[in-house]
Amino acid sequence: MAIPAPRRPQKRRPGSEPARTHDETRQKLIAAAGEVFAETGFQSATVRDICARAGANIAAVNYHFGDKLGLYTEFLKCSAEENEGPILQSAFNAPDPEEALRRFLHGMFRLMCQGGAPSIYVRVMTHELAQPSPALPVVFEHVIKPKARVLYGIVGRIIGLPPDHSQTRMCVHSIIGQVVHYVHSRSVIELAWPGFSMTPKMVERIADHVTEFSLIALKGIRNKPVSKAESTRR
Amino acid sequence: MAIPAPRRPQKRRPGSEPARTHDETRQKLIAAAGEVFAETGFQSATVRDICARAGANIAAVNYHFGDKLGLYTEFLKCSAEENEGPILQSAFNAPDPEEALRRFLHGMFRLMCQGGAPSIYVRVMTHELAQPSPALPVVFEHVIKPKARVLYGIVGRIIGLPPDHSQTRMCVHSIIGQVVHYVHSRSVIELAWPGFSMTPKMVERIADHVTEFSLIALKGIRNKPVSKAESTRR
DNA sequence: ACAAGGATCAAACGCGTGTTTTAATCTTGC
DNA sequence: GCAAGATTAAAACACGCGTTTGATCCTTGT
Fold first, then answer.
1. Per-residue pLDDT tens digits for B116-159
2. Greatest CA span in chain B, whole angstroms?
3. Which residues of A135-146 are buried (b: 16+ CB within 10 A; e: fewer)?
4. Residue A123: helix, strand or coil by DSSP?
5. For residues A232 and A162, what is the distance between their CA atoms, to the nearest angstrom?
6. Least CB-CB distance to B191: which of A127, A140, A216?
7. Within 155-184 of chain A, which residues have Cβ less than 7 Å from strand D?
8. CA terminus-to-terminus distance, chain B
9. Which residues have a Cβ under 8 Å from the Cβ of A123 and sit 6 or more positions away?
10. Which domains are seen in chain B, by residue range?
11. What is the mean pLDDT of residues B97-122?
12. CA B7-B8-B14 angle, 5° bins
């Protein structure tokens, strides 16, 4: 049994106004959940910790969200909407694919490291990728899929191949890998790179570097003959 | 208290032959531990699960290794030695830095995906990077540091900058990021790339791609003027 | 052959977890 | 004002975890 007897809170009667005070704890719970999930991931996060930070009772999570997983998916849906939209939009409005890639990468890095530390949203995603929870399908549908689709299109246009060509896909993952690496292995990078710290200025430099590094490689690949007999594969 | 009262097993008297049967469970425990740690990481792995797979009693872990963390670090030290050496060696013997990078990357990918699935050793490392355990310093010293040092040297020679230059470091992490991504986010890649699977042939193709992608970028960066006033930075 | 002690085993301890229960409190429509 | 119902609160439940205990095997040196 995944979610045993999720006793949902009863709906308010239509027409009645929501009680500000009570709805407040719901929001506080989601916010606190974000912090805790970002620190330890879904599995290791504890309901007690979340409730303590939210200043709520232990039973509040089960009352408002059914169970721990319900709170987790609720947080994912809420934060995905407000974080994903702008990046894809600015890339979509770019005049050419090179500029689109530039905007996409800068948007990603800015999202990941706004204010010096990786944002809560990104850290939660990192944990989800490293150790998928039962909510992985939700994450994939709402955040991975749209990003992948956009990147496949941009990179395909730069190297002159269709979006679903295997070479396009490998190039996309070469780019994504660079982005993910900086937030995923941040603690190790700091160990291996004395003096490194994710200041806003450094974030911009890294974004510039990844953009340049990737664009050089993509343009080089465009002008090279496709290796072996891969042009027929997908 | 990190390790409360680690009651070490007493040494055999010198001159006595080791009992094959008894030392066998030690090895079985380490092997089973590798499997479990690879699947769920240090924190989520359970001693009961490990002992069950090893066909040993629950108390065996504490008797032979003091505690769960002792078993973990023992596995790390054992598997690091046999996995790290060959890659660095073959890169070291290469005639030029381009060939060194090629050998390094192919060695890494072959290590990561030998036999279709990521190796146990690599999967444990992935979890350790995503969610560091108290054994992180051991990992860093024995596996990260030597690899980073070698890569800094190779890349620095390719782009014509010192190993500790910030641009060298960023290029190294652009390369490492690509490698790590394929094992770290493997489940998501499979979702976003219909028909993808880590066959040995595909591993070779990916290794070829990452090598080509990176070499093009590195050579391009070498021939470009260093951006802005970064040449003085480290 | 036999005591000594290393290695194994079943059982339990103490603790932390997610969840449930039961009662008290607060808000709200009439 | 006052019951009705939504919301909180405190306590306990059932379970799984790492670890410990004490008895019991089994190997081994004498």
1. 777 899 889 988 887 889 999 989 988 888 899 999 999 999 99
2. 69
3. bbebbbeebbee
4. helix
5. 11
6. A140
7. none
8. 40
9. A38, A39, A183
10. 78-232 (1.10.357.10)
11. 87
12. 145
Task: Give A-chain residues touching B197 at CB under 8 angstroms.
Answer: none
CB-based contact A172:A189 (threshold 8 Å): no
Decide if A177 contacts B181 (C-beta within 8 A).
yes
Please give, rounded to a whole number of angstroms, the shortest distance from the CA of B7 to a CA of chain A: 28
DSSP A28-51: HHHHHHHHHHHHHHHHH--HHHHH
Interchain contact A162–B (C-beta under 8 A) = no
Q: Tokens for B61?
A: 């872990």
| Tens digit of each residue's pLDDT (9 = 90 or more) over A101-157 | 999 999 998 888 777 778 899 889 988 887 889 999 989 988 888 899 999 999 999
The residue behind tokens 């850290």 is: A123
**Which chain A residues touch B134 with a CB distance below 8 Å?**
none
Write down how long chain B is.
234
Largest Cα separation within chain A, whole Å, is 68
Query: Cβ contact (<8 Å) for A221 and B221?
Result: no
C-alpha–C-alpha distance, residues B61 and B70, integer Å: 9
Indicate the length of chain A as a whole number: 234
Q: Do B227 and A210 touch (CB under 8 A)?
A: no
Query: Which residue type does B203 have?
Result: V
> Which pLDDT score is estimated for B4?
30
Q: Give residue-wise pLDDT tens across range B53-76.
A: 999 999 999 999 999 999 999 999
A186: which 2 tokens?
Answer: 């941040």
The two three-digit tokens of residue A65, written as one number: 């969200």
Nearest by CB: B177 against A181, A217, A230: A181
What are the structure tokens assigned to B130, written together?
Answer: 């995503």
* Rg (chain A; Cα; Å): 21
Length B56 CA → D25 C1' (Å): 15
Residue whose tokens read 């960066």: B221
**Structure confidence by residue, pLDDT tens digits, B150-184:** 999 999 999 999 999 999 999 999 999 999 888 77
Contact A30, A74 (CB under 8 A): yes
